[in-house]
Design a protein that fits this description.
Largest sheet: 9 strands, mixed
CATH architecture of the largest domain: 2-Layer Sandwich
Radius of gyration: 23 Å
Strand content: 25-35%
CATH superfamily of the largest domain: Pseudouridine synthase
Structural class: alpha+beta
Number of helices: 9
CATH class of the largest domain: Alpha Beta
Number of domains: 3
């Protein structure tokens, strides 16, 4: 019996701003997008739990070199919190631990928010991908093992109550990287005296990117194969919040060969570097006035652009 052979993987460069659906792991979403694009190299910029939906930037080809910029970026969420019920995982997928009566008002919830605005310490949940001795914490948790975890300092820039229904509420969260919204929901429930867990979660933003401009799988699958790559943002979109440094042909050659450039009137910091043929990579202007390359597009991509 003849088997249909998969065409060889292609060199695809760019960023897919995916609106991840409910029930799919981040890795499953990545592999599905990679198949649809037939891409040779792919990665993501931080995971979303299967129960969460929303913005999940997926990087392909040369864009994987710049994923760290979004891993470090601030995040925005809409969180649906159930009051009066605590679970083993801190979300709706866990087993019931305890139920309590709920006698709180919207004003009391907003007052509780003040305790969690600014820099706070969070203890990471056992059901998380953080590793201990090379093994994710959730594997210990599934085996019934509770490990001591050191608190982590995170920043909550804004908590806003969007709705309140008596036994639950919906809040908007703007926070730093590393913030666990499940833990935040549990901690708010503890302060209110009734307990809580996360009933639903949607990531609405990462850095400068919003879910409103994201693409779902329905749209990606509906596009013809030759059109799908056109739905990707360019590689330099990941560095959109950095200033631009334009280089002449000679300067471009120096930077591409690992050299340094003298800059006297330019502030120190990181820059998107562009040569005559467009984006070449990420550069840093040091305090000594020299600009050096940090991450550059591959020679092959540079030749294709030329």
């Amino acid at each position: 019996m003849n088997q249909r052979r998969r065409p060889p993987r292609r060199l695809v460069n760019g960023v897919l701003m995916l609106d991840k659906p409910f029930g799919m792991s981040s890795n499953d979403a990545l592999q599905k997008a990679r198949r649809l694009l037939n891409a040779a190299k792919a990665g993501h910029t931080g995971t979303l739990d299967p129960m969460a939906t929303g913005l999940l930037p997926l990087t392909f080809g040369e864009a994987t070199k710049f994923s760290q910029t979004l891993l470090d970026a601030d995040k925005g969420y809409i969180a649906d919190v159930r009051l009066g019920v605590t679970t083993t995982t801190g979300d709706a997928e866990g087993e019931l631990i305890e139920e309590r009566s709920v006698l709180v008002s919207a004003a009391e919830i907003e007052q509780a928010f003040t305790s969690f605005t600014g820099e706070i310490d969070q203890i990471p949940p056992m059901f998380s991908a953080l590793k201990r001795d090379g093994k994710p914490l959730y594997e210990y948790a599934r085996a019934g093992i509770e490990l001591e975890r050191a608190p982590r300092r995170v920043s909550i820039y804004q908590l806003r109550l969007l709705s309140f229904s008596g036994d639950g509420f919906v809040m908007e969260v703007c926070c730093s990287k590393g913030t666990y919204i499940r833990t935040l929901a549990e901690d708010i429930g503890r302060v209110l005296g009734c307990g809580a867990h996360l009933r639903g979660l949607r990531r609405t933003s990462i850095g400068p990117f919003a879910v409103a401009s994201a693409i779902d799988f329905e749209r990606l699958e509906a596009a013809a194969e030759f059109e799908r790559e056109g739905l990707l943002a360019p590689v330099d979109a990941l560095l959109a919040d950095l200033p631009i440094e334009c280089l002449d042909p000679g300067e471009t050659g120096i930077l591409l060969n690992g050299g340094r450039l003298k800059r006297s009137a330019t502030p120190a910091g990181r820059y998107r570097a562009y040569g005559p043929n467009g984006f070449i990579g990420l550069a840093e202007l040091r305090a000594d006035g020299f600009m050096v390359p940090l991450r550059l597009l591959s020679t092959q991509v540079q030749e294709e652009k030329a």
